[in-house]
Structure formats: structure tokens, C-alpha cells
Amino acid sequence: MKNTNNQASDLSTMLDIVDTSSLADKVEIILIKFFLDNNLKPGDAIPKEINLAESLGVSRTVIREALLRLRMTGLIESKKKRGAVLANPDLISLLQKTLYPTMMDENTLRDMFEMRLVMEIGMADLIFLRITPEDIKELTEIVKVEPAKADTFLFDIEQEIKFHGKLYEITGNNTLKRFQQMLLPVFKYVHESGILAKKIKGKRFVSHKGIVDIIKKGTPDDLRNAMRSHFENHFQRLF
How many other CB atoms are there within 10 angstroms of residue 163's CB atom? Predict the structure, then answer.
């Protein structure tokens, strides 16, 4: 047995590990490296299929499959009369294609919910930088329907979506806004699935109205602390 093990060890040092990736996999990696090495930018044309096939010594079928993969990931796109050009990848659209809350395990759902809490606590500076009097007026209208003791119970999901959606809008960051829209089904599913069903101790939290008051009179640091308190019930149920 010892001799057999030694022979296997000797072979592993003499033979290269077999590369099981397909030609299309390799070509895809080579093309991405080509884009990077040549500092191509969105809108720049890429070589034609026949030229790529000749340069790499593979069939046009292989090139076509590799390019199709790059199209699916948003790295290239076809332009009329120009052929394939480098594209500006739409990261949110890529994520949306695979975002199905019912197909995610509990750990992934928790991770995404935690990510939402961290993002919103960190938006304070952008909100103070870009908020307008019209935004404050709209936030004030949103919280008018909030119950008088909203700082003592779990928030209504629809009210949460409306209020926090407005905060994302105020940041003026389009990626953040689209990210929130993309994650809304996840947030709703987490609320309704029972994952956060853990009972919490009676405690007062900063309500939506309290957050609006701080935005009117406070500082970014005040808002960060208020948002952390606002989410305290979620943190308690998560941890």
C-alpha cells in the first residue's frame, strides 16, 4: 500500500493537472484579459469572430459561444453597422435574473436582510447632502399616517417600503435606488416567511416620524444613530 501511494505521488509531480474547462471557458477568460490589457472602454469595438478564431486557433463556433456568454453577462452588446462592442455592464439587471427569494436558503436571506440594514444606516451623509425641502415635505406626508405609538411596535411592511424607498430616492444614487427595488421582494418575503419571528423585548425605537424630525433638525451622525435605533427590533430578531 505504501509503495502504491509513493507511485501516485511520483506521478502527480510528473504530470500536469488535467484542465477540464471547455474551450469556450478558456476563450471567455482570454477575451476578458484582452479587453483589460488593451484598456477597452464601453463603446469600443471588439475584433470580428473570424479574426478572433484565426488568432486563437479555434473554431468560430467556440468564439460564438464565448461571445454569447459575454453578452449574457452584459460585457458586450451588438450595435447596428458596428458589430460587437464593449458594454457598460448592468450589475443590477444581472442580479435580478437570479433573485428568487423562495429559492434561497435561510442563511442567504438573513445575509441579504442584514445587508439592507447596514446600507440604510450608512446612507445618512448622502441624505443630508442631497435632500430638498420638497423631499422633507413628502416624508412628512408619508409619516402622517403612522400610528401615534409607532415607536413601540413592529412596523407595517407597506409603510416600511414607502418610507425607506423615499430615503433611497433622496440619496440620488441610482444604483442604490435600483438595488433597493430589486431587494424589495426579498425584504417582504423575509418579513412574511417567519424567519424574523423571534419575539423581542419591549423597548421603544425611533419611529419614521422621529427620523424625519432628525433629518429636519439634526446631523448625519444623529441620523445614523437614529437609523440604528429604528432597526433595533430587526437586529434583536436576527441575533
Answer: 21
